């Protein structure tokens, strides 16, 4: 059953890549590489807006096992029709939209979420703030 699910995801991604200009062969090769990767690490976009820097500072106070990541489609986003929210939850504390999956990656993952395919995310680390003028960043791992 897993193999059938993988093939379906590959087809969805390959179709999206073809629409973006790749030929069919290149699109399928890239789609298979994307699916076969165990975990795809990515930085979350938009973490400097609103109170997100304070939320990231608060995340550094918790053990990684207490932090979970959820992905939520935001198809009504005025800036990106493929937008995917990254929601952080600290066990027993609540949830917060910390940012978005980067636009190029969201363009490939959004059709999978829209088709009801499983895409999961997990907390990797909060990076940055190496100097007082630096910002925090969030790295998540995606399993397609």
What is the SS-derived class? alpha+beta
Kindly state the mean pLDDT as a whole number? Answer: 91
**CATH architecture assignment name of the largest domain:** 2-Layer Sandwich
With strands numbered from the N-terminus, the spatial order across the biggest sheet is 1-6-5
Supply the number of structural domains: 2
Beta-strand segment tally: 6
CATH class of the largest domain: Alpha Beta
Describe the structure.
The protein is of the alpha+beta class. The protein has two domains: 1-36; 38-143, Alpha-Beta Plaits, CATH 3.30.70. The protein has four helices and six strands. The strands form two sheets. The chain has a three-stranded antiparallel β-sheet. β5 (120-128) and β6 (136-143) form a beta hairpin. It is elongated, with a radius of gyration of 16 Å.
Quick overview:
Helices cover 35% and strands 29% of the residues.
